[in-house]
Amino acid sequence: MFSRDGTSLSSSRRKGRKNLFSDVSEMALLCHIPYWQHQRKFTMGTSQIQGRLWGARAADWAEANEPAWEPLFRSALDCLGVRPSARLLDIGCGAGGTLIIAHACGAQIYGLDAAENLVAIARRRLPEATIEIGEMEDLPFEDDMFDIVCGINSFQFAGNVARALSEAGRVCRPGGTVGMLVWGQRKDCDIVNAVMPAVFALLPPAPAGSAPPMQFADRAVVEELMQQAGLVPFKLHELAAALIFPNSATAVRAIMSAAARAIHHAGEDDVREAIAGRLGPFTRDDGSVVLNNRFLLTLATPFRSH
User: Which of 161, 226, 262, 269 could form a disulfide with 202 if both were Cys (CB 3.0 to 4.6 A apart)?
Assistant: First the structure.
């Protein structure tokens, strides 16, 4: 698919694509930003848009949602080649779930998130780490500072995704690795295909004529964004990961932690009922809820002209 010299191995597939967009975006179903803001020119900044929303239910995110993602965090860090003494930056680090695992692997850990409430939790959990509040489009770190820069389900929420990726490349050393993880195809993701449409139905409609969101599950879209950002994609990992919750109440709490816009628009009770009503087919006899999903992790290295 990719080569380290920047040659696209998916160009023949891309010729058949109509454009970078699709009428349905799997990731957009989980997005706090309204559809029409995804394609806007970068102006007010990701943290101003996202921080308040992602941090609205920070305790629920940290206690109910993030633990279910731990197996995926581990798989992603394995693919990224985390090793002792490596300098790692997690962009969109949330409450620090990925950083905790990286720290246990011996990495020197740094994080950034838009949500002050989530950063406060991450700092309490990891007092030895450097974790900042800020923009992924304007990172508060020096050039060539990190061996690994990752965005685990985060880059696609930037107001300007190419700019966020460019910043990731700037702070990554030559020969280092930038990783972008996104949801896979909708049909392969239980939470996107079966659960979140009920939440999506509670959101206000996009204004007439709004551009549809980018289709990040199309690997060529991510490749093109990375190339625009001065990165050279070199490997794609497809990761299967189940989000497992001990019971339906925890599953509802976890999913609601990422549904601030729907809650604001429709009310907490309606959102809770909508989510709970979709969990039946995924609930085991012991009461646990298992949502199987596939994710795409694209690895790239910064391009440095000589």
Answer: 262
